[in-house]
Amino acid sequence: MCPARRRHRVPRDGPHANGRRYEIPPPDLAALDTHGGVTELARALEAALRAARAAADLLRAELFRAGGPRGEPGHCPADEEAEDLIRAILDAVFPGDGFVGEERPERNRPPALPGGRCWLVDPNDGTADFQRGHRGASVSIGLVKDGVPVLGVVLAHTAPHGGEDLLAWAEGEGPVLRNGAPLPPISRAPLQAGDVVLVSSSAAKRARGNAEALQPARFRPLTSIAYRLAMIATGEARGAVSLHRPRALDVAAGHALVRGAGGVLLDEAGREVRYGPSGEGRVAFCFGGAPAVAERLATRSWVEAQAYGPGAPGLCAPLAGRAVRDDGLLRRGQGALLGQLAGDALGGQVEFSGRARIAAAHPQGVRDLADGGHWSTLAGQPTDDSELALALARTVIAFGRFDAARVAEAYADWLGSEPFDVGRTVDAALRPALRARAAGGGAEQVAEAARAAAPRGSLANGALMRVSPLGIAGHAAPAAEVAAWARADAALTHPAPPCQDASAVFAATVAFAIASGAPAAEVADRGEALAGELGCGPEVREALAAARAGPPEDFEASAGLVTIALQNAFFQLRHAPDLEAGLVDTVGRGGDTDTNAAIAGALLGAAHGVLAVPERWRRAVLSCWPVEGAPGVRRPRPPVCWPGDALILAERLLGL
C-alpha cells in the first residue's frame, strides 16, 4: 500500500461521523521524489487531494457567509480563489503538466511535452446551485493522459447530509476511496426497478419526463455532474446523467472515478467520452454507470425530460445564506423528517395487518421499502400521516413561523386533494374546514370550522403523527413554546387533552434531541421530565413511564390510540439498538403500522441522525415522485405531498 493511501484517515465511527473531516496532511514531497515505491500517479493523487482540501475549506466558508455566496448568478469570486489555490499546489509539483481550469482561461496551458498529462479542474462544480444555497457542489480535479482520465478527486465540500464527501482514485493505485475507505467494484447488472439515477437539481420540475426516460429506475436530483458521477462509485446510484452540454473539465474527475469503479462514461451517441491532448472536449449529453446501465441511458429519449413542464409548485428550495453550519444539528433535524417518512412508508406496506399475518408474510420482518403494499404506493411514498406532516412543514416555512390558522388552510387543501387515506377523526374536522375554504372564508374562519367540528372524545393518533416538523422548527425555542404550538395544532382536529398533551411532549422532546445531541436514554428521560413540566395529564405520563419497561401490550385491539403510539416511540428510543431495528420491530407488532412507525421514526431519527436511517430507505424516499401519469404510479399526488425534497425541508425548518 502506498503512502498516499495510508494517509487518508477515517473517523473511527464511520466516514461521515459527526461531521468531522478526514485529515490529509501536506505530503513530504522530497520523500516522494526519492522513494522508489511511490509512483508518479501516487504523487499526483497526493497533490490533488491537498489541493481539493484547500479549495473545499474556502468554499465551505463561502456557503455559510451571511447573505450567501457572493457574485452574479453562475460566477462566484470564491471559485476564482479556489482555482488559484488548486493551480498553485499542482504547479509546484508538476510544472510540466497541462492545466485547464474554468475560472481563468487566460492562464490555461497545454502539456509541456507531446503526449503529456493535463489537469482538468472545475474548482466548484455546480456554482449556480451553490449560490442559491444548494448542497452538493464539489471540487473536481481530473488528470487525463492520451485521451483517458487516469486520476479523479471529487470533494463535495457541503454534502447533502452535512459534512464533506471525498472520492478519489488514480490508475494503478487501488480501488476508489470514499473518505479513505476502499469501495468495491460497482454492480454490472442492467438497470432494474428501484435503482436510482442521479440527474440535475431541476429535474423535479419535469418529474414525469424524467420518470419516463429512466423507467424502471427512479431519479434523484443532485447538484454537480462531477458529484453525480462520483456517487456511481459508491453504489448509492446506478447511473448519472447530464443533459446540459458538459465540458471536459466538468466530467473528467467524475469520469475517472466511474472508470476506477468499473464503469464507463458515454456521450449522446453511445461512444466513450475521450479528451483532447490539451484537455479539450465537449459533449451534448453524457451518461455514466456500469456498461449496461450507461448504454441503456444513452439510448433513451430525453426530449420530455428536457422540455418545459408544469413544474412542481410547492416543493421547497434552499435559502441562500441560511445553511446550517452545525453538521450534527443538521443531521438530527434531517433524521427526524427522514425517520418519519421512512417509518411511514415501511409501515404503510402492511397497514391493517395483524401481527401474525405480518410474521407469516415477512419472517425476517418488513425491512425494505417496496412498491405496492396495502395502498399500492411507490417505495418511499408517504401515507396520510406524513403527507400532513409535509403540509405542516411547508406552511411553517412559507410563513416563517407556526400559525394555526394558516396550517388549518393547508390541512383543508390537503383534504381537497382527495388523499387515498384519511382517518375518521381528521376527516370529521377538516371536511367543514374545506367547505369554509371553498366558500371564501379566511384563514381564521377555516381554522374555527375545523375546531368546531373536531371530535372531542377521540383519542386517536392523527395529530401526533404529523407534529414532528414543529420539533424541528422549535429546536432553539423554549420547550413551553414548542408545546404550545403542538397543542394548537392538535386542537384543530384532536382537541382531547391526552391528544394535545401527547403532541406537546413529543414535539418538545424532538426539539430537545435535535438541539442537544444527547444519547437516546437521556432524550427519553428528558421527555418524561417534560411531561411533568408541561402539565401533561396522567394518560401521557403513564405511557411514558410504561415505556421504560416495555412496549404496549396490544397494538391491535386499540389500534390508532395515541398512547399506544407514544409509548412505543419512547420504548424504541430506550431499547432499540438502532433506528432500523426499532422501526422493523414497530411494524412487526401490527395494528396502525404506518402511524406507529412514522412517530417512532421521527423520534429515533431526531436522536440518532439521518445517517442512522438505512441508506436504502433514504434512497427510496429521496427518489419518490408520485406524479400523475408516470410509470408505475398508482397513487398520484400533488407536489406538496412528494417527499423528495425532505433534506431541504428539514434544513429550512432548522433555519427559522
Q: Your description of this structure?
A:
By secondary structure, the chain is of the alpha+beta class. It folds into two domains: 1-311, Fructose-1,6-Bisphosphatase, Chain A, domain 1; 327-405 and 461-654, ADP-ribosylglycohydrolase fold, CATH 1.10.4080.10. Helix content is 46%, strand content 9%. It has a seven-stranded mixed beta sheet with strand order 1-2-3-4-5-6-7, with helices on both faces. Strands 9-8-10-12-11 form a five-stranded mixed beta sheet, with helices on both faces. A hairpin with an 8-residue loop joins strand 4 (148-156) and strand 5. Helix 11 packs across helix 26 (646-654). The longest helix has 24 residues, at 40-63. It is elongated, with a radius of gyration of 26 Å. Mg(2+) binds at residues 102, 122, 125, 250, 383-385, 592, 594-595. Residues 11-23 have a biased composition (Basic and acidic residues). InterPro entries: ADP-ribosylglycohydrolase (IPR050792), Inositol_monophosphatase-like (IPR000760), Ribosyl_crysJ1 (IPR005502), Ribosyl_crysJ1_sf (IPR036705).
